[in-house]
From TrEMBL:
Stored SUPFAM superfamilies: MetI-like (SSF161098)
Primary residence: membrane
Name of the molecule in the record: Phosphate transport system permease protein PstA
PANTHER family, A to Z: PHOSPHATE TRANSPORT SYSTEM PERMEASE PROTEIN PSTA, PHOSPHATE TRANSPORT SYSTEM PERMEASE PROTEIN PSTA-RELATED
GO cellular component: plasma membrane
């Protein structure tokens, strides 16, 4: 009966077997990604024994930062009047903020959910993995000396996002890298979006299909697959040295824009191709000009696909480190970039710096930075998924 209707049972069985076999690589990839994410999350927690001037105390929730710093300064021998002057002086207050980090610890030797004040000269006396530290918690708590504290330290917390890099892992933060990433990515998209979308419209709607169009399409697809390090070499020769921008945000933005333009062109052309020709024909039949058809009918219909392509391109650019290292991204930048001609760092470069340090705690700081980058990428991918599903049209 199946043969009568043109269905071969053996071919159907082979198709089902092949479809099931394709599920195995997918499950393996998901398992590897989950393992990687779990390992990174696990490394971002540790149990630590910290010692230093006034490091042994913890404080209840709601204690003002000024109270914690004042108590530490008094313990170091400062007079009451001197402490008041330091806290009232904006420069001294900023210096104290950079040298003293207030964190909320979920578990300490004095109880759960306590504030701790980590100073510049506090040092790590013991660093244990999460499971090892929890297993030996009571033993470590009993062995604490004077001026020492025991904490379950989540390296990724609110203070990590707002603090500046430091040569001490206990005080290191990622704020300049986040702002630098926003600067570089924002300027790169401002350059790449008009050029990429405009090129896609020109090639798809105005340029006749022929040899030139095929050559340009092949080259654009090849450029989209060129290793990013090549763009870094181009940016170093052209923008850093040729135009004299130097190792600044502007040079990095132009370099990443070159990297993102081919991807935006390819995705925008696919979005334009998805618009049926019948819509164009209907607009022409109503007397619309070529410009009106393109910019009032075709581009609005293809806009969701274009936006999705731009977001996916931004997600790729935000994780690039190799080209930015070549164009002068500084590994250590202790300030927020103030403009396009400022020195800068980005999240991937900052993570690279932490991983290359000899102190083992910097590996945990790097794990926290990786989680920040993964959260940013997740937001971008979810935004692309939402926009694709929200504005998708069936023709």
């Amino acid at each position: 009966m199946n043969r009568a209707f043109g269905q071969d049972p053996w071919k159907a069985r082979i198709d089902r077997t092949f479809a099931r076999a394709l599920v195995l690589p997918l499950l393996l990839a998901l398992l590897l990604l989950a393992t990687l994410l779990g390992d990174t999350l696990y490394r971002s927690f540790s149990v630590q024994v910290v010692g230093g001037e006034g490091a042994g105390r913890t404080y209840p929730l709601g204690t003002p930062w000024e109270t914690l710093v004042k108590e530490r300064l008094l313990a170091e021998g400062y007079l009451e009047e001197e402490v008041q002057e330091l806290l009232q002086d904006p420069k001294e207050r900023r210096a104290l903020w950079l040298q003293n980090r207030v964190e909320l610890m979920p578990l300490t030797h004095e109880g759960p959910f306590r504030l701790v004040l980590t100073g510049l000269y506090d040092e790590r006396l013991g660093d244990y993995s999460l499971l090892q530290g929890l297993r030996r918690w009571e033993e470590l708590k009993a062995s604490l000396g004077e001026g020492e504290r025991l904490v379950l330290n989540p390296w990724l917390d609110a203070s990590f996002l707002t603090r500046y890099p430091s040569r001490s892992p206990l005080l290191a933060g990622i704020a300049p890298a986040i702002v630098g990433t926003l600067w570089v990515l924002g300027l790169a998209l401002l350059i790449a979006i008009p050029v990429g979308v405009g090129t896609a419209i020109l090639l798809e709607e105005y340029l006749r299909q022929g040899r030139l169009s095929r050559i340009l399409e092949v080259n654009l697809r090849n450029l989209a697959g060129v290793p990013s390090i090549v763009y870094g070499l181009l940016g170093l020769a052209l923008f850093v040295r040729g135009f004299g921008f130097g190792p600044t945000v502007l040079a990095a933005s132009f370099t990443l824009a070159l990297l993102g333009i081919p991807v935006i062109v390819v995705t925008s052309r696919e979005a334009l191709r998805s618009v049926p020709d019948s819509i164009r024909q209907a607009a022409f039949a109503l007397g619309a000009t070529r410009r009106q058809v393109v910019f009032r009918t075709v581009v609005p219909a293809a806009l969701p696909g274009m936006v999705t392509g731009v977001i996916l391109s931004a997600a790729r650019l935000i994780g690039e480190a190799a080209p930015l290292l070549l164009v002068g991204a500084a590994a250590y930048v202790p300030y927020i970039p103030s403009g396009p001609l400022s020195e800068y760092t980005v999240i991937p470069v900052q993570i690279y710096l932490w991983v290359s340090q000899n102190q083992p705690e910097f590996a945990r700081v790097a794990a926290a930075g990786i989680l920040v980058m993964l959260m940013v990428l997740s937001v971008l991918y979810l935004a692309a998924l939402y926009l694709r599903n929200r504005f998708r049209r069936e023709w």
